[in-house]
Each structure stands twice: as C-alpha cells, then as structure tokens.
Amino acid sequence: xxxxxxxxxxxxxxTTTATxxxxxxxxxxxxxMLLDADPxxxxxxxxxxxxxxxxxxxxxxxxxxxxxxTANDLAKRYELVxxxxxxxxxxxxxSAMVAADLLLMPIQASIAxxxxxxxxxxxxxxxxxxxxxLEVMAMIARAPTNPxxxxxxxxxxxxxxxxxxxxxxxxxxxxxxxxxxxxxxxxVVEMDNTKARAEIQLLANEIFGER
Length: 211
Ligand SMILES: Nc1ncnc2c1ncn2[C@@H]1O[C@H](COP(=O)(O)OP(=O)(O)OP(=O)(O)O)[C@@H](O)[C@H]1O
Ligand SMILES: [Mg+2]
What we know:
This protein is an alpha/beta fold. The chain has a single domain, classed as P-loop containing nucleotide triphosphate hydrolases (Rossmann fold, 3-Layer(aba) Sandwich). It has helices spanning 14-27, 42-52, 68-77, 91-99, 111-130, 150-159, 176-184, 194-208, and strands spanning 2-5, 32-36, 59-62, 80-84, 102-107, 135-143, 166-173. The longest helix is centred in the middle third of the chain and has 20 residues, at 111-130. The mean pLDDT is 94. The structure holds adenosine-5'-triphosphate and magnesium ion. Residues 10-16, 38, 42, 86-87, 141-142, 172, 174-175, 178-179, 182 line the site of adenosine-5'-triphosphate.
C-alpha cells in the first residue's frame, strides 16, 4: 500500500503524521518504508535523529522531483510505503498522487486551509484521471485540545462541496509532545503521553485496520 501524506498547506502536520504512522506500523510488525519526497528533508532528518539515538530502525528513502516510479518500486518491496510530499503544489505531490492508494490530507478548519482545498480538489481530479482508485481523506490536525466538536462541524462544512474528499474520524490534536517527538526522532507511541499515543493508534486503526 502507498499512503501519501500530502496537501498544499505548509506546516499542517504532514511530516508529523507520516513519521508517527511509520513508527506505529513498524511496531505492529509491518515492513514500512518512509519515502521523503520533500526537498526540505524533514522526515529524513527525523530518521537521522532516530538513528543517532539508536531507536528501532525506520527505513527511509529520499527522492524529489518525479516520485511515481520510486513509490511504485518501493511498494513491491515493502508492505507499506508512506510518502511525505511537503507542503505545496509540486511535482512530488502530483506524481505521488498518481501512485498512491490513499491521500491523507491533514487540515485545520481555517480559511487558509479552505483556500488550499479548492485547488487541491482540482489537482485530485487530475490525479484521479490517471489513478482512478485513489482515495482521499482529509484529517483534522492540530485541533485545540479542549473538547469541542466545533472544528469537526467546520471541517464538514468546508468539505461539503468536495464529495471526493472524505473526512477521517480521527483527529490529531495540538500537543507539545508531537513537537518533542519530531525533535527526538521518535513517534509519540514511544513517548510518555497516553492521549497522543491513543490518537495515533486510532488513526492507524482507521487507515490500516486493527492488527
Ligand atoms: N499535532 C501537533 N501538535 C503540536 N505541534 C505539531 C503538531 N503537528 C505538527 N506540529 C509541529 O508543527 C510544525 C510543523 O509540523 P510538520 O513538520 O509535521 O508539518 P508539515 O505539514 O510536514 O510541514 P511542511 O509543509 O513544512 O512539510 C513542527 O514543529 C511540528 O512539531
Ligand atoms: Mg513536512
């Protein structure tokens, strides 16, 4: 399976989601490859910090530009390829969308995100012409931790015009532990925060099924 964590909004939690899902699935015994398709190399640097700390290995490859062939080739060798494509409309994002089974798109229910979704919907349409089985799921990310359903309602409203984009039940909330984990080369499931751990486990269950 090829999971692309992408979108045109910078800083929306894409690399955080990609790295955290990679750790959870590796812990579950899945053969995971993290494909870093962002020229900023945030995911690769996270892997380097991970390796320096001698944490369990997450395989990682870097490829920028056209990533279609690389993603497909890696998908023959690994059970799960997670592609982190950076936060803008790019060759990496577009070519990964043609290879992906699922595009997971972290969003915040803000006007800035709404504006990028409009354009993303166009790009998704083009990708689907070449990859008809591509599924697309938005996910509310960096939502405030105070229990509230407002952001869910807002996101639903925001996505109502785009029936091709589903909305994940899982929400990744804004928690300092995600920033700490990124800096330490860890997934939150390797850290001491039960709420963040549960969040990522639920997200993994929703995307990949319980296993
Ligand atoms: N759920 C969260 N809670 C708190 N901080 C977060 C969360 N998700 C991401 N961050 C922080 O926000 C910053 C941007 O996150 P991240 O790198 O995952 O975003 P991105 O979408 O990959 O950005 P880019 O578009 O630059 O690739 C990082 O400092 C990260 O630690
Ligand atoms: Mg990133």
